Amino acid sequence: MTTAAATIGDEAAKLDADDPLAPLRDRFLLPGGVVYLDGNSLGPLPAAVAPVLTDVVHRQWGTGLIRSWNEHGWWDAPLRVGDAIGRLIGAAAGQTVAGDSTSVQLFSALGAAAALRPDRPLLVTDPGHFPTDRYLAEAVAGRESLEVRHVAPADLDGFLASEGHRVAVVSYSPVDFRTGELYDMRALTDATHRAGALVLWDLCHAAGALPVDVDELGVDLAVGCGYKFLSGGPGAPAFLYAARRHHAALTTPLTGWTGHAEPFAMSPDYAPAPGIARARIGTPPILSLLALEAALTAFDGVDLAQIRAKSLSLTGYFLRCAEELLTPLGFEPVTPSDTARRGSHVSLRHPHAYGLVQALAAQGVIADMRAPDLLRFGVNALYTTHQDMLTAAVRLRDVVRDDAYDPAPQPSGRVV
Ligand SMILES: *Cc1c(COP(=O)(O)O)cnc(C)c1O
């Protein structure tokens, strides 16, 4: 190592030694020899999941058969797992339901928002929003005769000053999935409310990564996924939060039978269940829900403020590594260094992002990229170490210095 790397190496050792969350890494089964920095796309396997799934499959399903809907709490799982997620996003019990994908939950939440503000014709979303959020905004707007306006969070105040009275809902993510920039949820929520509109937050990159406190902020609706920072496994169920004050008037566009007030009455007409249960749709994916429920125990006894402090320490440390080892080689950090504006991943710009991420993976460092030129390094305070960040930076430096990668762009259809 160079002297600089040796100095920041000492820093990594010290930060890890002083880390109160370090023992939590044992709650995950991370493969040996791998530095995993892609938990913001697919969280790793929590140790609690496999034993629970074995029991669910062999005993609950295999032996209990259909009786397990009652005897093992399958029927209530969407609300029970919803409440467990609620504890991580500052939602009191009874306002969060788990199930379906984020895309489906977005459709539900956008439709519900439009129905709560029927006299307002505009749906505001971020031009940089995740593609599915953008596509579904268009789809819902088409069905509800709304117009979509693409307004960046930084421009929201100005937009609302002239058009606020026409806005039904503002649909944003607190963290930009490309750059890792964190927006001011409180300021954006308050500005939206002053205009009389509703706010819908997509918490995919926030739930489990930082405190969001939806109740305290007065958020109207939120959605998020189960497989990123919540580590619920590939295709884990997503969640929908609706503030209690909206429940009585909440009508979602997907009025499935499990959201009915009397699902087993098999009534010909739909009547919504009281409370958040009306946001249920169809038969829940029990295996995935119970895997997610087990995964969430990795957060037991942990405070989101501690998670946030460590996440910022990891990303701040990685930005320092990048400055010393990588910016001289042509990398440009695009994630804000200001801690108030930084989510839980760091993105570096380099024209050969795809080939570099492949070369890093061959070296045991799993990160990811967003076309055309961003390398993303996600941290999860439950298991990531400062040493992981140093290893990633040093190996990335070596790959570039030794020209040991293929500069070809990302072929279509590849996940990473
Ligand atoms: C990951 C992510 C999604 C994913 O949606 P799926 O329906 O689970 O594929 C949606 N929105 C945002 C902001 C995301 O980060």
UniProtKB/TrEMBL annotation:
Pathway entry: Amino-acid degradation; L-kynurenine degradation; L-alanine and anthranilate from L-kynurenine: step 1/1; Cofactor biosynthesis; NAD(+) biosynthesis; quinolinate from L-kynurenine: step 2/3
InterPro entries, per the entry: Kynureninase, PyrdxlP-dep_Trfase, PyrdxlP-dep_Trfase_major, PyrdxlP-dep_Trfase_small
MF annotations from Gene Ontology: kynureninase activity; pyridoxal phosphate binding
GO biological process terms held by the UniProt record: L-kynurenine catabolic process; L-tryptophan catabolic process; NAD+ biosynthetic process; quinolinate biosynthetic process
NCBIfam families with a match to the protein in the record: kynureninase
Family: Belongs to the kynureninase family.
Subunit structure: Homodimer.
Name this polypeptide is given: Kynureninase
Source organism of the structure: Streptomyces doudnae
This protein's encoding gene: kynU
